[in-house]
Amino acid sequence: MDMTSMLVFCVVVLLCYYALRTPNNIPMGPLTVPLLGNIPQLIGRNPLLLFRKWRKQYGDVFSVYMGSQLLVVLNGYKTIKEALVTRGNVFSERPHNFLLDKINEGEGILFASGTSWKRQKKFTLNCLQELGFGCNSLEVCIVDEAKILIEQIEQNSGAPLNLKDILIRSVSNVICGIVFGRRFSHEDKQFLEVLSNFSEDAKYLGNASILMNCFPFLQYLPGDLLGNKTILEHTKVFQKLYDDLYESHQSTLDDNNPRDFMDLYLTEMKKNSTLPNKEENTYSKNQLKALVGDLFGAGTETTSTTLLWAVLYLLHYPDVQEKCFDEIQTVLGMERLPSLDDRSHLPYCEATILETLRIAAVVPLALPYAITREVYFRGYRIPKESSILINLDSILHDCDIFKDPGVFRPERFLDSSGQVRKPNEFIPFSCGRRVCIGKKVARMELFIFLTTMIQKFKFFPVDPCHLPDLEGNLGITYSPKYFQVKIVRRQDVKS
Ligand code: HEM
After folding, report:
1. Which residue's CA is the nearest one to ligand 1's atom 15?
2. Is 436 annotated as contributing to ligand binding?
3. Where are the domains of the chain?
């Protein structure tokens, strides 16, 4: 065969492949490579930037192939709301995930589906309400933790500091308060190991689990390129901590005086164990372990990463930092620590937190959804077993909703009288049946931790000529690249 015939042959094969690959009415998307799909385009690139480009090219509903697995990406507020709210009965399941199925066996909330997910989510939400979402006890816990955070930072005042680790410990201790009714010292070895494992897992989980879902043979490769073996190893460390706390709660349980989430769960578990129909009982020790892991995993990385982004943006926008500080100083002075009652009196600080949640889009693709039967949506056919990605970044960076979306401008969340104004489209915690259960606790933590830090300290870049990068890394969360910050006590700042 000469070169021309060879070329014609290749073109015909490719055309046939593409024609077969987009069977009737499946959403359009970028060209794919046989067997690999769009993986080559995604490797080493920021998928969020690619998705912005593809949305312009193919519209609000487009498809991406990971190997032969179809992912339908939904973009824009109207499309996403229509799917998750109007058609929430169809768009509410999670896909099977090779790694997580091994860890949680489909239990918990984050990656669970069906009746068990519904019951556990409802129960957990009720517990969180009972344990003080929006009332004093949780607030006291956050304020106490903020005081310890301040002490920790003070020990390093003036020196370049990796704030991320300290923030993770503080935020995670709030979850520990809710779940186990206790906090851990910032020096506790077991606690530190569990936290560092969770952080590492969040990095791996995004890419590794997607690739492994598409190409299961990857799990048998020698070594641990995708981190799956490390993740499974990490679960043993968490299991040990969990078992210890489970035993101590069991042995001291008083059904009439629940101290924390674990007590509430154990009491419910006892009640359910007497149900005549065993099928109806979705409460078990393993289920509780999955739930605790979910609250830790979902509650720690997200909130601490948002705080880290806030500090990073304050380095880039020192005028915003000064406006927040001035507002705090005027309303509270330098001594009285911020409390939740101050929220309405500190609208600029509140707006700064909302702007951070918007611009950083910490969970930019929500968590993957799956559909269990063929669905017609917006004129497209989405085949059974397809995965759905909810591109929250496409809303939070939509220039029709937020003018100059790449600019950090808290004022966009203030009305003409200086009060906080939130457009309906502002949904960093997603919406519909799968909406984040921790949004209230997260907003409480973000407010107390950030305003307390700004009241006590001023943040400086380590090298004023080279500010840390504003482009982050995408795992399950979108987090800043490693950076250090110089934090100086306000009373030591030379004006
Ligand atoms: C700034 C902090 C946070 C952000 C930006 C955030 C955002 C999100 C998003 C976007 C989702 C995915 C919803 C979907 O799939 O459509 C989610 C789910 C979830 N979040 Fe959060 N979250 C935060 C903090 C928390 C906290 C503090 C907790 C626990 C106390 C928590 C617990 C959960 C759980 C359990 C789910 C799974 C809900 C389900 O699948 O039904 N999150 N979160």
Report:
1. 367
2. yes
3. 111-366+399-492
Instruction: Locate the ligand 1 atom nearest the alpha carbon of residue 442 and give its number.
Output: 27
Q: What sign for the dihedral angle of Cα 194, 195, 200, 206?
A: positive
- State pLDDT tens for residues 303-326: 999 999 999 999 999 999 999 999
DSSP string, 376-399: EETTEEE-TT-EEEEETHHHHT-T
Model-level pTM greater than 0.70? Answer: yes
Q: 65: burial class by Cβ within 10 Å (0-12, 13-18, 19+)?
A: buried
Tell me how far the alpha carbon of residue 309 lies from the centroid of ligand 1, in angstroms: 17
| Cα distance between residue 234 and residue 18, in whole Å | 42
Which residues form ligand 1's pocket by a CB distance below 6 Å? 109-110, 121, 294-295, 298-299, 302-303, 306, 362-363, 366-367, 390, 428-430, 434, 436-438, 441-442
Which listed CATH number (3.40.50.2000, 3.50.50.60, 1.10.630.10, 2.40.30.10) goes with 111-366+399-492? 1.10.630.10
Q: How many residues does the chain have?
A: 495
